[in-house]
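Field reference: sequence -> structure
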Amino acid sequence: MNALRSFNGVERAAVLMMLVGEEEAAAILQKLEPDEVRDLGRAMFTVADVSEAEVEQVLDDFVFKARGRSSIVFDPRPQIEGMMNRALGSDRAEGVLARIIPPEANARLEQLQWFEPDEIAAMIAAEHPQIAAVLLAQLDPDVAAQVFEHLPAEGQPEILRRVAKLGPIPTEAIDTLRAMLDRRSGGARKSVGLQLGGTREAAKILSGARKITEQRVMPKLAKIDREVAKAIEEAMFVFDNLLELDDKNLSTLIRSIDSDVLVKSLKGVEEDVRNRFLGCMSSRAADGIRDEMEARGPMKLAEVLEAQKVMIAIARGLVKDGTLQMPGKGGDDDYV
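Structure field:
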């Protein structure tokens, strides 16, 4: 008897998702962040051949019994596509599926994995910015950031703008990329259109680049397209990023925030996140914030989100003027 596989948390969740109907699965997917949707989608493909014993093992782990279905041995693509389309809409679902469908089921530009970032940059340095943008959107964000660093500085703002505005990709653009890669790898793939890019993708690329690159590119991008630059900036800095600050920098931020804004912002977070903020305050000040939150009672989500936006805007301003130091980003003193 073959030993049962050991599933991680995402894979166990994927097994359960494959057992429920499309409507229920779509309702769950709508609650997840884009990265979580992609991770869960990938996991659903990996567990498509789960055995009856493994299903029972997963169900036992979740204290749930499902006697009506014994295994999931079928082509999972129609069900997964249906879930994604129902949860995200056809345009967004196409972009997610383009990243999670295994190579044998999807014509991705898999040749890219054989090249170093500087080699990829050399391929597209002389290409039209739209071609460069499509290629960057095909890469994992950390690799895309390295490629972006190697591109000519004068072209970076326009390329980043095009990544942020990517939508349905014409077949001709994919054909051009494949032809360029095929000349180097000797392979040929069937042409398909893809939904790629977006503000979040562009923000991930720039977030992975050095701070000096961000400081050079963003002002130039703002001159080209202020709306896109603002959207990328907002996507690069979200409320959760504030937790990356060390205690000293977080204390500096808190001192710059009006108590009313702080109270509203912390009403909408988990207890451990709230304690992280309050732990950077004096005991007296922290107790005052707790008392104020309790006294206000339930608060509308819109108020909480608006207050958090204010905190984020203040934090961005403090980072720009050097008052706050965000970790994980290289600066002018990087060694090469």
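Note: Residues 9-105 form one domain.
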